[in-house]
Design a protein that fits this description.
- The chain is mainly beta.
- It has one domain.
- The strands form two sheets. A four-stranded mixed sheet has the order 1-7-2-3, with helices on one face. Strands 4-5-6-8 form a four-stranded antiparallel sheet, covered by helices on one side.
Length: about 120
């Protein structure tokens, strides 16, 4: 039996991609070299971290997300996952707790520009 507390994210100094586990049966790999920017928003108790890549936008909602932002800043963020509610109390104090991950595909800017010209 493992005594290690569950984690919502992992880091790897040599990470090439960010693995986003959207659900237990669905994940997405996003190349870190296509990372554009991040936006951190703190509202009351909950926080939001928005990660924008060339092809997708990832929005993370939860608590203590600054550590995930720092890992992304160092380009060491390797994976993120939403843990089931029953595991949330097992996460150590001060560690990130991801409540929700939403992923949307980026719109093709070039196609939108062409459509507005016609």
């Amino acid at each position: 039996m493992s005594t290690k507390s569950p984690e919502c994210y992992t880091t790897e100094p040599q990470a090439r991609c960010l693995r986003v586990e959207i659900s237990p049966g669905r994940s997405l790999l996003l190349p870190l070299d296509q990372f554009a920017f991040a936006e951190f928003i703190s509202a009351d108790k909950e926080q939001q971290l928005r990660l924008v890549f060339a092809t997708h936008e990832v929005v993370i909602r939860g608590f203590t997300l600054r550590r995930i932002e720092a890992a992304m800043h160092r380009m060491e963020l390797a994976s993120i996952v939403t843990l089931p509610a029953k595991y949330q109390p097992l996460i150590a104090d001060g560690q990130p707790k991801i409540r929700e991950i939403a992923v949307t595909e980026a719109k093709a800017v070039g196609l939108q520009s062409e459509a507005s010209l016609n």
